[in-house]
Give the backbone structure.
Amino acid sequence: MERTYLMVKPDGVQRGLIGEIVSRFERKGLKLVGAKLMNVSLERAEKHYAEHKGKDFYDRLLDFITAGPVFAMVWEGDQAVGLCRALIGKTNALEAAPGTIRSDFAIHTNFNLIHGSDSHDNAEREIGIFFTEEELVSYDKAIQVWI
Ligand code: RTP
Ligand code: MG
């Protein structure tokens, strides 16, 4: 079982796409174990996007992710990291496969609606930035045996 960190970015919240986005992971059969609407402080944003420090889009990225509330989530399931990245689609909406979130709803790379952890280690790191372990809920999902 693997956990991943997903976050509807400020553009997705402003466009009223939280429900649409959440429903895609629910329908896939993954298990939601944590969720909250929150503002991202600059300190948290810098930790989260540390790997991009120094790149030309870094400042713009920090401005964007701190500009309004995000919907932070932790999802659990077999290969959750890779499966969620597949449902999200490539960074650039032009390259995202049809049917993915970014293909269906995004136009620009700067406003690509959702973040998903790109590796198991980054997932655990990012979950630690945005959630305390007490905020995550452990439970059995009756239907899971059929998926
Ligand atoms: P994310 O981390 O947000 O899930 O997106 P990602 O893995 O698909 O893309 P990543 O390479 O991690 O980049 C993080 C975010 O930075 C913005 N970006 N802009 N060339 C550019 O202008 C550029 N490249 C990346 C995007 O908003 C991307 O989601
Ligand atoms: Mg990334």
